[in-house]
Backbone:
């Protein structure tokens, strides 16, 4: 029996030795295979890194100094004030694409780091992310903005995971600690991430949790205990850039930030960018080419892209000068359309005036407003207004609601004021107001322009063609303040107007440097007196005040 037992043990030992020997050889072969494959991949990536193309012109012309950012003097000044002082602010920069928002923020941080009073140190980072591509996992497995915890059950948890230890992973808010977190297109941020970001802005720390963490677990490294206890540090300044309007950004975020506006680029700024781009690549330029590009390019990116394509066409012909022929080929092949530039009318017309509006990006624009007022049978009049947003539907989670056009409501006020001034019943007239041009218009700021158009049509008196108007008209004939007055006045000047009438409450001394005569009024009678140089009394008449809806 002892002999059999000894024999079985001997056989077992032999099998064990063979098993472990075979596995060790297989493991060795596996390690050797991994090393060989790794060496091949490393060589492949080293060879890839040796390949490089020339820099795109857009990269070569990217601003590196504050002087390279043109057309944004007011925005740069505001950015300096908000970021370079001893108490830098969170910032939202509004503006159309391609006007220098990102470059300006990056350059101003470098300026702030040189200030003796600034809390930004020399090692302060500028961390840039794009909200349109920032994705996160609903289960919090991965969150590149806030950070996450890599629990032991997840693939690739490594040695710590095998030991059952959760591993905190910092996000962009921690990477930007002590510096600036720049979020491009911040208006596109997911609502969940937006709410988390607001909490971090308040607390300046990111708290994390994991069901695998236990403060009593001695095997967990001390630094991980520290992170779970105190969170990731996230003391940074947020700069969000957006092409949206302020009203589209959550009010909770806006209330925490200084709001700065970058303007759409005008032709002189576009021309300057074009000249810089051509100079940086050492190319010549035919006369008139720069001006022609400015007719088509609406921002810096458009300008550089047109220049780059035209330069390539010139080089293919063996030329070192950008010619008009090259440019026209680019404009035609790329289906580029010239920018619409509205100019002031050269001759005065009865019932036609120039109003002012602001459209996307804060750009002012001149608009024509036409009015026709004709006498008809008593009480048989009609009223219509065309070319405006008649009604807007607002959708909410609980349903939807409809809002009447503020431009149409403003027309009601104008009708009431005309009745009081002229002591007439507008139900005895056919009235038609039109906003030509195919651009749907809304807002009460067209009140004074509609009033002047209707008064002109009613009295048969033409309004001076070189004059533009903005301002809301109240039912009592007051001219009330409106938004975007500077942009509107600049648009009037660019369109060739000599004079612009604005509400008195909108005036400030900064409007004087625009280069157009600013006339301030507080009532429509003041407006009539100043436009026609006459005295128009405005005595209210008794009775019901009629509106356009009642005609």
Residues:
């Amino acid at each position: 029996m002892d002999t059999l037992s000894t024999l079985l043990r001997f056989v077992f030992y032999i099998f064990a030795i063979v098993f472990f020997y075979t596995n060790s050889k297989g493991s060795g072969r596996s390690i050797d295979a991994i090393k060989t494959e790794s060496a091949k991949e490393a060589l492949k990536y080293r060879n890839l890194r040796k390949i490089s193309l020339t820099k795109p012109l857009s990269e070569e012309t990217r601003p590196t100094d504050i002087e390279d950012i043109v057309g944004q003097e007011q925005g740069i000044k505001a950015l300096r004030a908000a970021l370079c002082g001893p108490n830098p602010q969170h910032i939202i920069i509004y503006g159309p694409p391609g006007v220098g928002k990102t470059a300006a923020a990056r350059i101003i941080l470098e300026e702030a780091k040189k200030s003796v009073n600034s809390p930004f140190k020399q090692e302060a980072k500028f961390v840039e992310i794009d909200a349109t591509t920032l994705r996160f996992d609903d289960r919090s497995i991965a969150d590149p903005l806030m950070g996450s915890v890599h629990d032991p059950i997840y693939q690739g948890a490594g040695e710590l995971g095998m030991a059952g230890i959760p591993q905190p992973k910092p996000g962009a808010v921690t990477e930007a600690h002590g510096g600036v977190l720049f979020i491009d297109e911040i208006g596109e941020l997911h609502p969940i991430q937006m709410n988390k970001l607001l909490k971090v802005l308040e607390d300046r720390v990111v708290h994390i949790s994991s069901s695998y963490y236990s403060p009593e677990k001695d095997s967990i490294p001390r630094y991980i205990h520290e992170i779970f206890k105190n969170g990731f540090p996230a003391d940074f300044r947020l700069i969000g850039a957006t092409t949206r309007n302020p009203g589209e950004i959550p009010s909770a975020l806006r209330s925490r930030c200084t709001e700065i506006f970058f303007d759409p680029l005008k032709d002189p700024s576009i021309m300057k960018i074009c000249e810089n781009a051509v100079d940086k690549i050492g190319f010549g330029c035919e006369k008139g080419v720069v001006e022609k590009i400015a007719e088509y390019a609406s921002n810096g990116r458009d300008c550089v892209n047109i220049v780059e394509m035209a330069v390539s066409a010139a080089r293919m012909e063996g030329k070192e000068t950008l010619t008009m022929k090259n440019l026209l080929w680019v404009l035609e092949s790329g289906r580029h359309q010239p920018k619409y530039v509205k100019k002031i009318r050269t001759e005065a017309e009865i019932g036609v005036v120039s109003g002012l509006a602001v459209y996307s990006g804060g750009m002012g624009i001149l608009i024509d407003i036409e009015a026709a007022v004709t006498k008809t049978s008593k009480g048989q009049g009609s009223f219509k207004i065309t070319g405006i947003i008649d009604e807007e539907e607002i959708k909410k989670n609980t349903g939807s609601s409809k809002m009447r056009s503020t431009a149409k409501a403003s027309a009601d006020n104008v009708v009431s004021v005309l009745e009081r001034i002229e002591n007439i019943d507008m139900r005895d007239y056919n009235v038609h107001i039109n906003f030509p041009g195919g651009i749907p218009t809304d807002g009460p700021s067209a009140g004074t322009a509609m009033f002047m158009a209707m008064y002109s049509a009613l009295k048969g008196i033409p309004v001076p063609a070189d004059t533009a108007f903005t301002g809301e008209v109240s039912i009592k004939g007051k001219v009330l303040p409106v938004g975007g007055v500077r942009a509107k006045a600049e648009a009037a000047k660019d369109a060739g107007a000599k004079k612009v009438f604005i509400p008195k409450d909108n005036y400030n001394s900064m409007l004087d440097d625009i280069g157009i005569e600013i006339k301030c009024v507080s009532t429509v009678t003041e407006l009539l007196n100043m436009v026609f140089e006459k005295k128009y009394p405005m005595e209210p008449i008794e009775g019901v005040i009629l509106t356009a809806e009642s005609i």
